[in-house]
């Protein structure tokens, strides 16, 4: 039996200093391991316990660990996970499938063909974002892998009415909108993590898929997996979103990441025993 473990990264498996969510007294806070450095500064962390559990999980030859993220390939490749290197990674919300760190050209061509057929062009969406965003709260506007667009904003200043109007405008053009921290994503609806996960499952012969994620962009991934987990923070938690095969954790912050890795390991071990 091969078990595929597809996990979202930011605020699911790894956490910035601002997202740690540590509430206990400092002397009993968990020890942290830095897993990402950007511009010579530490950026993302796991607890040491979570890192050890992940290393054990990836050492199991029956488990295929697939980092699954909305990050671009360049942003993803800053991360250094403990344990065996992941043979597959899903970046750009499913638009890039990396095989041993190299983009799979056939997959990218399939994605491009579907987006051209089903969605408004990226440039139209990008221009709409630029023309409607208020300079008072807009900090940056970016394109990711020529697949989707996002804004970096001062979140407290962004009107809810603007986000709602953008969502309605995008929906009519085959796009979806997700607000994650200080970023507002506009993503083509067919660009999904679940489609890429299914492709990796096909290639690896995985018989069971496990997944975790915290944002609306992870909902399709969780629904497509045989079992899923979401932390007690993020868009899905705020919306009280769940599904029959998804476990809604009460734990928030970096300790939720540890709980998710523990759940992956526990379920993989259970499936291994069943297979034996």
Features:
single chain, 276 residues, alpha/beta, 5-stranded parallel β-sheet, 9 helices, 15 strands, globular
Overall description:
This protein has 276 residues and is α/β, with parallel strands linked by helices. It is 35% helix and 26% strand. The chain has 9 helices and 15 strands. It has helices spanning 48-59, 73-76, 105-118, 122-132, 160-171, 193-204, 219-224, 235-238, 254-275, and strands at residues 3-7, 15-16, 32-38, 41-47, 63-67, 88-91, 96-99, 102-103, 138-144, 148-153, 175-180, 183-188, 208-212, 227-230, 246-248. It has a 5-stranded parallel β-sheet, with helices on both faces. Helix 1 packs parallel to helix 9 (254-275).
Short description:
The protein is α/β, with parallel strands linked by helices and 276 residues long. It contains nine helices and 15 strands.
List the helices and strands and how they pair.
Blueprint lengths: L2 E5 L7 E2 L15 E7 L2 E7 H12 L3 E5 L5 H4 L11 E4 L4 E4 L2 E2 L1 H14 L3 H11 L5 E7 L3 E6 L6 H12 L3 E6 L2 E6 L4 H12 L3 E5 L6 H6 L2 E4 L4 H4 L7 E3 L5 H22 L1
Parallel strand pairs: 1-5, 1-13, 13-14, 14-15
Antiparallel strand pairs: 2-4, 3-4, 6-7, 7-8, 9-10, 10-12, 11-12
